[in-house]
Amino acid sequence: MAAKAKNPVWAFLASVQLALLLIGLLASTSIIGTVVQQNKPPEHYAETWGKTGAAVIDAFNLDDMYNSVWFLALLGAFSLNLTVCSIDRLPGVIRVVRKDNLGTATEQLLKMKMQHKVQRGGSVETAAQHLLGYLSGKGWKAARRDKEDGTLFFAQKGGWTRYGVYVVHISILIILLGAVIGSPTVAKKIFKNPQFAFKGGVLLPELRSTERIFSYDDESEIPLGFTVRCNFFDIHFYDNGMPKDFVSGLTVLEQGKEVLTTNIEVNKPLTYKGITFYQSSYNDMHRPIIHLTNLTTGKKTVFPVNPEQWDATHSWQEEGGQGMLRIQEARSVPAENGTGTSTEMQMWLMDSQGPPSMFPMSYGRPVIVERPSTKYELKIGPHYATGLQVSKDPGVWWVYSGCALMLLGLYAAFFMSHRKIWAYVHEVNGGAVVVFIGNANKNSLGFEKTLAALAEGFSSKNDSSN
Predict the structure, then answer these.
(1) Predicted local confidence at residue 1, as pLDDT
(2) Strands 143-147 and 375-392, bridge-based pairing
(3) Is the distance from CB of 289 to CB of 304 less than 8 angstroms?
(4) Which residues belong to any copy of the ResB-like domain (predicted)?
(5) What pLDDT shows up at residue 339?
(6) Which of 292, 264, 448 is nearest to 367 (CA)?
(7) What angle, 0 to 180 degrees and rounded to 10, lies between the N-to-C axes of helices 396-415 and 164-181?
(8) What pLDDT, in 10s, does the model give residues 203-212?
(9) Structure confidence by residue, pLDDT tens digits, 32-84
């Protein structure tokens, strides 16, 4: 009977050609996403790409390409292709795994290349009984069927590995689902809930707090549901003036109570209630600020300096009581590099450990103050605002789960095989002969050695029993 013709639309959606086309489009457009910096202000694109280039970037939403409608549509088309392809081919794989291998004609089996013959004395039934026990002892659970000319055994391992490629397909769909769930575009246009998933940022000066950030998409305010405070910002530079590293001390507050305090830096973010804060940038506020670090406890405290009240007294809380700090005197001095001027100050510091300390301090240069049982490091420098990139991605665990599943599927698909063994017991010249026949869909050379060892072991067992 002639095979039923496939629906042409179904055949197109299941085709490898469509998969290759979509993969090529996704790969090539992703290159654009690496060339064009994402989520930058409009003036950045006008300055970098010119007026026409900026217009093209805006028209095709290339400044947030991975959340654009057309890129999500490509992902949707690829998901559809992958789903239809799997549905189309999976029944054939199921038939192979569930095939009645004992129904295979012995003439066909004896023509297979991978086989080893073992001469066995005695009756076919006796040899069959010994063979069944031997295979079971080697971990091969064999089924038996008596034939007109002998007895056929069949055992297999790793049949499930044929589904490895479909596990990979499912894992890709899970990863794509996670990407869609975590897309701000989907949250806004489909879920109608911008707070479900978002990407934005905020510039937060030292000692300032915020309860909201600003969306990269349209600069709209997004409430966090809690408060974040920047306790301090610390930056170090290379000798050439380029930033070496920078750290922000953040505190999360709920209803005015501190619930979490930590430091973040590049590649070391803070995550709270599914919202992640990344150290992204910084900005000079063009005002001075004093950084005080207790070198014994590691506690850091900062005091903004009001140029109009530079000699105000600043206080902080220590374990043994209250500490106080004040600029007693300030004057301009020539800068060390010979160009311009710097500021030199006379400082006054007192805590609960004896009389106050008085010492000089220059702008931008730290000093160490030794107290009876504590050391302090003081530095006065620019007042910074930390630039935080903030995102909420509820699909990230879908992506992680999909990646883990993909590794399992790839391992099964490429490093494991479906191995089959037939053992045909029949009579030749009055004695039993056992033919071991094998087949593997991958690593046939390795399985050939396994089959040879199995046949040799059965032959040795036969010799010892004789």
Answers:
(1) 45
(2) unpaired
(3) yes
(4) 16-311, 380-451
(5) 67
(6) 292
(7) 170
(8) 999 999 999 9
(9) 988 998 877 788 899 999 999 999 999 999 988 888 889 989 999 999 999 99
Select from 99, 182, 157, 154 the least CA-distant residue to 402. 182
Q: Which amino acid is at 44?
A: H
- At 281-323, the pLDDT tens digits run 999 988 899 999 999 888 889 999 988 888 899 999 887 788 9
Local structure of 62: helix, strand or coil: helix
Which parts of 267-360 fold into alpha helices (H)? Answer: none
Give yes or no: residues 53 and 75 share one domain.
Answer: yes
Parallel, antiparallel, or unpaired for β 198-205 and 375-392? antiparallel
The answer to whether residue 401 is domain-embedded is: no
Identify whether the C-beta of residue 365 lies closer than 8 Å to the C-beta of residue 379: yes
Q: Which residues of 3-39 are buried (b: 16+ CB within 10 A; e: fewer)?
A: eeeeeeeeeebbeeebeeebeeeeeebeeebeebeeb
263 and 347 together in one domain: yes
Note whether 109 and 256 are same-domain residues.
no
Report yes or no: 436 and 423 within 8 Å, Cβ to Cβ. yes
Instruction: Say if residue 104 is in the same domain as residue 85.
Output: no
- Both structure tokens of 332: 């301009």
What lies within 8 Å, CB to CB, of 106 at 6+ separation is 147, 149, 150, 152, 424, 426
Residues found in the chain: 466
Any domain includes 217: yes
- Tokens 């992680």: give the residue: 400
Residues 450 and 364 in one domain: no
CA 352 to chain centre: 49
* Structure letter (DSSP) for residue 268: B
| Span 164-171, average pLDDT | 96
Q: Do 103 and 86 share a structural domain?
A: no
Residues 96-128: b if buried by 16+ CB within 10 A, e if exposed: eeeeebeebebeebeeeebbbebebeeebeebb
Task: Report residue 108: phi and psi, to 5°.
Answer: -70, -40
Which range marks the domain in which residue 150 is found?
99-158+417-465
pTM metric for this prediction: 0.76
Number of domains in the chain: 3
> Across 79-220, where does the E strand assignment appear?
115-120, 143-147, 150-157, 198-205, 209-215
In angstroms, the CA 40 to CA 46 distance is 11
- Strand 198-205 versus strand 150-157 pairing type: unpaired
CB 432 within 8 A of CB 127: yes
Predicted confidence (pLDDT) per residue in 119-139, tens digit: 887 889 999 999 999 999 999
Alpha-carbon distance of 217 to 186, in angstroms, equals 12
